[in-house]
Amino acid sequence: MVLSTHVTARFGTNSNFLRGLTNHDDEDAATVNTTRLGLACDAAQAAFPVYGGQTYDDTNEAHIAAGVQGVIAYLRMWSTKQGASTGEVTAFRESLKDIARIGPRKRANPLTTSVLTPSVPDTTAGTVRPRFDSEQFDDIRPNPPQGNPGTT
Fold it and tell me: Cβ(58)–Cβ(3) under 8 Å?
């Protein structure tokens, strides 16, 4: 499904909203102006590689949601009747930047700036147990192990 089909599926071809956005200079229009809708779809898809770092993918739900948002934003910006607003286009571009941040092959690389190094436990005394397993904590732990935890 192309982006214009997703837009019309969400708003309807007989919708006053979409008809008004695409025909802002013709109050008596009975249908959606598919030429203007197509141009808005082209503009939204062209923004994907620039701000999203990837091409528009019609099978990706995040791309579809952002694309529909972009089409409506561009139509509103181009329309004088509905109120020109670059804020919606800016919000659309921010959505694309969010998609770029979570896009394919994006992951947080493990990194630390810690100067601590793990110590090697002394295994000569038998089983190594955490410090909180010490007998001094037996009175505050439910069902503590009996005897010395370092021996078997």
Answer: yes
